Amino acid sequence: MNKTGIFLSDGCEEIEALTVVDTLRRTGLEITMISINNSTSVIGSHGIPFIADTTFENVNFDEYDAIVLPGGMPGTIHLGEHEGVTSIVKDFFAKGKLVCAICAAPSVLGAAGILQGRHATCHPGFEEKLTGAITSTDPVVTDGNVITSRGMGTSIDFALAIVKYLKDDAAVEELCQKLVYKK
User: Fold this and answer.
1) Which of 50, 69, 155, 163 has its CA 20 to 30 A from that of 99?
2) Any idea which residues carry the catalytic annotation?
3) Tens digits of per-residue pLDDT, 30-66?
4) Is the pLDDT of residue 1 over 70?
5) CATH homologous superfamily for the domain 3-179
6) 6 - beta bridge partners?
7) Where are the domains of the chain?
8) SS3 letters for 52-120?
9) Which helix (H) or strand (E) holds 41?
10) CA angle, 81 as apex, 54 and 37 as ends, to 5°?
């Protein structure tokens, strides 16, 4: 079974984070909400509190196949400043594991140097932070083992792209029917 981790910090965009968690769990994929705070308590960018499953220090990342970075401010800044997040992003990319980021968070991938020569997208205005990327305005871009997306309004499509990568088109179609979501 594929195991995915999603990094959460105070100031993350709640919909971008929780849509991915909910969508993956609906398809039977295992996803762990990993707080980079000193506790499992997280306050989203719109003041919505929620509880992560665990904290960064308690995770064995060797057990994971994919990592997701939600956007939001100042959540993206916190992710980019966390040395452990940067290290894991680089390690996952180098090992061919799936690395995903939405909204402003692809800027963390750009700063980590993993977008060089890759197609990527992000929230409008962050394109210059996707160092070396071939930028796009597509809602979701998959290039090898990297998936990026534009923002809250593309959260479902972003989550479905992750499901497609980790499972298949049939899992996406089945979920879309259950959600009454037309792709």
Assistant:
1) 50
2) 103
3) 999 999 998 999 999 999 999 999 999 999 999 999 9
4) no
5) Class I glutamine amidotransferase (GATase) domain (3.40.50.880)
6) 33, 68
7) 3-179
8) CCEEHHHCCHHHCCEEEECCCCCHHHHHHHCHHHHHHHHHHHHCCCEEEEECCCHHHHHHCCCCCCCEE
9) strand 41-43
10) 25
